[in-house]
TrEMBL record:
GO molecular function: DNA-binding transcription factor activity; transcription cis-regulatory region binding
Pfam families: LacI (PF00356), Peripla_BP_3 (PF13377)
Taxonomic placement: Bacteria, Bacillati, Chloroflexota, Candidatus Thermofontia, Phototrophicales
Keywords: DNA-binding, Transcription, Transcription regulation
Keyword Transcription part of the UniProt annotation: yes
Domain HTH lacI-type: from-to ranges: 6-50
Descriptive protein name: LacI family DNA-binding transcriptional regulator
Coiled coil (UniProt feature): none
InterPro entries reported in the protein's UniProt record: HTH_LacI, LacI/GalR-like_sensor, Lambda_DNA-bd_dom_sf, Peripla_BP_I
Native organism: Phototrophicus methaneseepsis
Gene3D superfamilies attached to this UniProt entry: 3.40.50.2300, lambda repressor-like DNA-binding domains (1.10.260.40)
Superkingdom of origin organism: Bacteria
């Protein structure tokens, strides 16, 4: 009896083999015996399973869901993903997500046609809806730069909290006591982790948390510019500002220059990511470096392990960050 939306996982369960074995059999790839291949093909036909391509030249594909943000951050992650995909003989299907679930709903056509063996997500919008759908389809997934405080949730992140704490310790050692903070998108865990690192830094030296010094951002340069204008307009302006990514830090630098102030002297700036432009702007940006390409590569490797039913020792990987000190930070101005 045929079903209207049979998945690769359904075929694998019926044949009592891994999803990867099914994918190899359907695509005419090595790795399964002829007897097993024929049994899988027979079961797929019986169940009414269909897929767009079944030839030896087509590698199994990974769905890659990314936010519609044109930044070096995304490019670095994609570089790592693509490198690992090529090495592991997987193709990629890219979907750029807008700020709603509309793009994901469009992407479901790909899932319904069984075109992908798993999904990689980079800081997606409406994470819980997407994950719920993937779990219902029994489709493996890994998320990059976000987590749900669940050790069984497949994710690859950086030490976001520790990275911002390192930045705060640097500024505090330079004598700064009034430090502004611009968060990232607060619908993702990494932004909460970075905000907690800011709070940790204040607490270490007994400084109070002041809500007026914290602005909610969205990782864009224009918002970094706007929020820095707001912080500079305070009756007692901050002597330093930490932005949750380099792009917002660039906006903050523009706002400081527009106000006639000197970066690193009147107001110090710290970013996060260490994208290529961080060392090229003037003055060069002090920032927290996260290993973005490595995050993409590790996530791809983890997803392939899940697809191929290999043992995965840890579903949550957290890669180390490093503070990169440049000229955008200096000693706090004397009162």
């Amino acid at each position: 009896m045929q079903r209207s939306s049979v998945t690769l996982a359904d075929v694998a369960a019926e044949a009592q083999v891994s999803r990867m074995s099914v994918s190899r059999a359907l695509n005419g790839q090595a790795g399964v015996s002829e007897e097993t291949r024929q049994r899988i093909l027979d079961i797929a036909n019986q169940l009414g399973y269909t897929q767009a391509a079944r030839n030896g030249d087509t590698p199994p594909a990974i769905g890659l869901l990314v936010p519609a943000i044109d930044t070096s951050y995304m490019g670095e992650i994609l570089s790592g993903v693509c490198s690992a995909a090529e090495r592991l003989h997987y193709g990629l299907l890219l979907s750029a997500q807008a700020t709603s679930t509309a793009t994901w709903q469009t992407s479901q056509t790909t899932l319904n046609n069984n075109l992908v063996a798993g999904v990689l997500m980079v800081v997606p919008h409406d994470y819980e809806t997407i994950v719920g759908d993937l779990k219902a389809r029994e489709l493996p997934y890994v998320i990059i730069d976000h987590h749900m405080n669940n050790d069984n949730e497949p994710s690859v992140t950086a030490t976001n909290r520790r990275g911002i704490l390192d930045a705060m310790r640097h500024l505090l050692a330079l004598g700064h006591r009034r430090i502004g903070f611009i968060t990232g998108r607060m619908d993702i865990a990494s932004s909460h982790d970075r905000l907690q690192g800011y709070r940790d830094g204040l607490a270490e030296v007994g400084l109070p948390f002041e809500a007026e010094l914290v602005c909610e951002g969205d990782f864009t340069q224009s918002v970094g510019f706007h929020h820095t204008q707001t912080l500079l307009a305070l009756e007692e302006r901050p002597t330093a500002i930490v932005a949750s990514n380099d792009v917002m830090a660039f906006g903050a630098m523009d706002a400081i220059k527009a106000a006639g102030l000197t970066i690193g002297h009147d107001v110090s700036i710290v970013g996060f990511d260490d994208i290529h432009m961080a060392s090229q702007v003037y003055p060069p940006l002090t920032t927290v470096r996260q290993p973005m390409a490595e995050m993409g590569e590790v996530a791809m490797e983890m997803l392939v392990n899940l697809i191929e039913d290999r043992v995965t020792l840890s579903y949550r990987r957290e890669l180390p960050t490093d503070l990169i000190i440049r000229s955008s930070t200096g000693r706090a101005p004397s009162v």
